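Example 9 (inverse folding). The structure is encoded as follows.
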């Protein structure tokens, strides 16, 4: 998700790639998609914006950034109940669970990474990042935290599980989400440049060097990011022109795009079902069959207004949407 200042800056200098498919129109609630509501669970705090989520399956936790409430919520994955609310974390955005070391990494403005102990559910420390950190990811092989320094257009690589030396790799005008590729032992990160196409960039965490740059023609505002479970392709949410891009990570890096809800943002994959969930600022959800080549639409839904954050539990196939109205955690499942 872009900060307001970044949105203004991009509006002044962005270009729009040719588009042959308009964004998907908002569907009526519950239409076209085999999802049904399980429950709405009351959440603490104000009716303010949420951002990223992550799941700790080993500990049965769902971790949610209550972005505009300056808090991180740690919820029960089983029923959505609140286990802990951690307040006084300014504008939390990215969430990365490192279950192997019992840590949760949360990005926070203006330039901090908050480290939380996932056993005692308490903050451990805060360390420096670059400007306006957004997404983050955990490299368990090298014990490095990758942080998207959105305001700097860079990737911070923080050693020793987030408490060691920080190296920053300059990438472009703005960065979005970052993921760790365990098969290649590399980070991938979305990058918005100047007049050139947006890119998906591969970075070596140990050498702190760029390995690969893949142009993303037809994708404006490259932001959300997930890797296919087979490691052969990546999915990018193109926030500014409301597209999902699927890019092949090998060969000629072919890119296929299709329309999503307006302002697509957070992505989540249920590998067991082979579904990719794409949540959007408009509250319109699109679901894609990633067992098929290209971009194959399953259907649409509207979990709630502004439900731009989604997390799918691979064990139960339930899907979580924190909603500002209430606020509540809406739990849904395939019917």
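The amino acid assigned to each position is listed next.
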């Amino acid at each position: 998700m872009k900060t307001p200042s970044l949105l203004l800056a991009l509006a002044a200098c962005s270009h729009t790639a040719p588009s042959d498919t308009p964004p998907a129109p908002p569907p009526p609630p519950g239409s076209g998609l085999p999802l049904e509501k399980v429950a709405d669970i009351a959440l603490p705090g104000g009716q303010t914006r949420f951002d990223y989520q992550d799941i700790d399956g080993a500990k049965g936790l769902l971790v949610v950034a209550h972005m505009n409430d300056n808090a991180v919520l740690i919820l029960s994955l089983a029923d959505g109940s609140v286990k802990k609310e951690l307040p006084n974390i300014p504008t939390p955005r990215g969430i990365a669970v490192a279950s192997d070391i019992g840590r949760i990494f949360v990005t926070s403005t203006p330039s901090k990474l908050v480290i939380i102990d996932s056993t005692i559910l308490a903050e451990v420390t805060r360390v420096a990042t670059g400007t306006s950190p957004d997404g983050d990811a955990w490299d368990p092989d090298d014990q490095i935290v990758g942080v998207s320094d959105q305001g700097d257009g860079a990737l911070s690589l923080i050693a020793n599980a987030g408490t060691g030396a920080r190296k920053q790799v300059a990438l472009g005008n703005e960065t979005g989400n970052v993921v760790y590729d365990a098969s290649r032992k590399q980070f991938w990160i979305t990058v918005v440049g100047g007049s050139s196409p947006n890119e998906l960039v591969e970075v070596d965490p140990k050498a702190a060097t760029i390995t690969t740059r893949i142009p993303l023609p037809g994708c404006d505002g490259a932001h959300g990011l997930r890797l296919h479970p087979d490691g052969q392709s990546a999915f990018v949410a193109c926030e500014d022109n409301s597209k999902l891009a699927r890019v092949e990570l090998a060969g000629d890096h072919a890119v296929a795009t299709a329309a999503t809800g307006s302002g697509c943002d957070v992505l989540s994959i249920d590998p067991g079902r082979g579904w990719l969930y794409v949540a959007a600022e408009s509250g319109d959800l699109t679901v894609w069959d990633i067992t098929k080549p290209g971009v194959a639409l399953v259907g649409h839904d509207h979990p709630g207004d502004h439900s731009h954050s989604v997390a799918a539990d691979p064990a139960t196939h339930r899907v979580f949407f924190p909603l500002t109205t209430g606020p509540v955690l809406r739990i849904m499942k395939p019917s």
